[in-house]
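TASK: fixed-backbone design
INPUT:
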């Protein structure tokens, strides 16, 4: 069984078998680590693929001073944090025409990975001084909709 150092040296020479050996050794543990961080299996699988793609394309960046596993976990963790940051910035609303049983025109806000209902008359913080979002146009105010004036 080759050491991580030997496998990385062979990956630098573009040895696909060495890469497959690293993937077999660390693939499941990295995916489980990512699933714990992001809370979604599909996203964890995508991030695990991205992690190993970075190993293949940037193997020369590991200088051998620390453990390979530590370097690999750091790549995976940084990718997970970037993913969670980007999810937190996205605002998700239901598709047009989809109404829920509680009122229909209320918007949805994605906060820290969880969907949360927000009142159309209040902003995400719950204060009426915050901005209002029209559910039809996703604009902060809607001229065509009298309710949002």
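OUTPUT:
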């Amino acid at each position: 069984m080759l050491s991580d150092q030997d496998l990385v040296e062979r990956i630098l020479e573009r040895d696909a078998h060495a890469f497959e050996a690293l993937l077999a050794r660390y693939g499941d543990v990295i995916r489980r680590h990512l699933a714990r961080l992001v809370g979604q299996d599909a996203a964890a699988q995508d991030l695990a693929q991205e992690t190993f793609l970075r190993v293949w394309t940037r193997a020369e960046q590991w200088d051998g001073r620390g453990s390979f596993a530590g370097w690999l976990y750091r790549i995976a963790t940084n990718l997970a944090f970037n993913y969670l940051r980007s999810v937190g910035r996205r605002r998700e609303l239901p598709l047009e025409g989809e109404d829920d049983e509680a009122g229909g025109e209320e918007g949805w806000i994605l906060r820290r990975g969880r969907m949360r209902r927000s009142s159309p008359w209040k902003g995400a913080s719950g204060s009426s001084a915050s901005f209002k979002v029209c559910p039809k146009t996703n604009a902060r105010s809607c001229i065509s909709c009298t309710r949002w004036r």
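COMMENT: The longest helix spans residues 16-38.
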